[in-house]
Amino acid sequence: MGCEADIETRRKRLLYRSIYRGNKENDILLGQFARAHIASFGAVELDQYERLLDTGDNDIFDWVSGKADIPAEADTPVLRLLMAFRVSF
User: Fold this and answer.
1) Alpha-helical regions (H) of 1-89
2) What is the pLDDT at residue 89?
3) pTM, whole model, 2 decimals?
4) CB 11 within 8 A of CB 45
């Protein structure tokens, strides 16, 4: 039970980090993405998502919008899932 509690704590922390980025566009994009997907993420996906959130807002936005190429080290299944995600207003 402790392991699942730890994962749930990570999910909550990453959701918070997704919503409060400091860049409104990424707040919306990452916040909605996290609300839609983070509950289904296991430890591997949470690791990938946490590394993504450690990246600068401008880089994330440029990758998702196609303005910049994704470096190999950042090209993960979670980033690909984010790129396929559509924000609803």
Assistant:
1) 2-19, 24-37, 43-53, 57-65, 77-84
2) 62
3) 0.91
4) no
Which pLDDT score is estimated for 2? 65
Which residue in this structure is represented by tokens 């990424």?
Answer: 26
3 token code pair: 């392991």
Residues of the chain with pLDDT under 70: 1-2, 89
The whole-angstrom distance between residue 68's C-alpha and the CA centroid of its chain comes to 18
SS3 40: helix
Q: What's the distance, Cα to Cα, between the start and end of the chain in Å?
A: 37
HSE toward the beta carbon, residue 28, CA cutoff 13 A: 7
Q: What number of other Cβ atoms are within 10 A of residue 76's Cβ?
A: 17
CATH number assigned to the domain covering 2-84: 1.10.150.250
